[in-house]
Design a protein that fits this description.
Shape: elongated
Oligomer: single chain
Pfam family, one: RF-1
Family: Belongs to the prokaryotic/mitochondrial release factor family.
Protein name: Prokaryotic-type class I peptide chain release factors domain-containing protein
Number of strands: 5
Helix content: 10-25%
Strand content: 25-35%
Structural class: alpha+beta
Radius of gyration: 14 Å
Largest sheet: 3 strands, antiparallel
Number of helices: 2
GO molecular function: peptidyl-tRNA hydrolase activity; ribosome binding; translation release factor activity
Number of domains: 1
Distance between the termini: 18 Å
InterPro entries: Pep_chain_release_fac_I, Pep_chain_release_fac_I_sf
Strand order of the largest sheet: 3-4-5
Length: about 100
């Protein structure tokens, strides 16, 4: 599923990287048995979805949050991997620093 960050920016699903691991958040014993922690990453520096102007603007705005041109959002607030995925996506859509 593509991620519409703003009317001017839609990130193709193929450019989004998902990684899942065990969470230390709420859930008791459930936490130790499922990969509910979510990391969502996007290579800003190498994205084909951005114009050169958009890329330069994002690299400048997100500079301190980038590692090798990649931004990563982590969510582990909920027990459910699905809910944490929604939280990670929402963090980008709700952030004007990416739009």
């Amino acid at each position: 599923m593509d991620l519409e960050v703003s009317p001017a920016l839609t990130i193709p699903a193929s450019e989004l990287g998902w990684r899942f691991s065990r969470s230390s958040g709420p859930g008791g014993q459930h936490v130790n048995t499922s990969d509910s922690r979510v990391e969502l990453s996007w290579n800003v520096a190498g994205s084909a979805a951005l114009s050169d102007g958009q890329r330069l603007l994002l690299l400048a705005r997100l500079g301190r949050h980038l590692v090798a041109g990649v931004i990563t959002v982590t969510a582990s607030e909920r027990r459910s991997q699905l809910r944490n995925r929604e939280i990670a996506l929402g963090a980008w859509v709700g952030s004007r620093s990416v739009a």
